[in-house]
Amino acid sequence: MAGTPSYQMHQHMMGGMQQMQSMPLSGNVDKDFVRMMRMHHLQGIQMSQMELQRGSSPEVRQMAQKIIEQQQAEVRQFDEWLRRNP
Q1: Where is the DUF305 domain (predicted)?
Q2: CA Rg, the chain, in Å?
Q3: Per-residue DSSP letters for the chain?
């Protein structure tokens, strides 16, 4: 199963989880939430892009496209909040 798109997606997800777990906490719940959710959303975007590249179900591809659009908008909101709250 190594090398398959599903395996690659799983490996990417596990790498992102490790990054989130190793992220130093600021002690500010709001900032930590935004930073972790930003990373989580970036993972969702990348997984959705993999679905668009390799998936065959029109229904799932439509879900993936919607996830990309919504989570990109939320990442922009997170980035803006982090700029205002260094």
Answers
A1: 6-82
A2: 15
A3: -TTSHHHHHHHHHHHHHHHHHHSPP-S-HHHHHHHHHHHHHHHHHHHHHHHHHH---HHHHHHHHHHHHHHHHHHHHHHHHHHH--
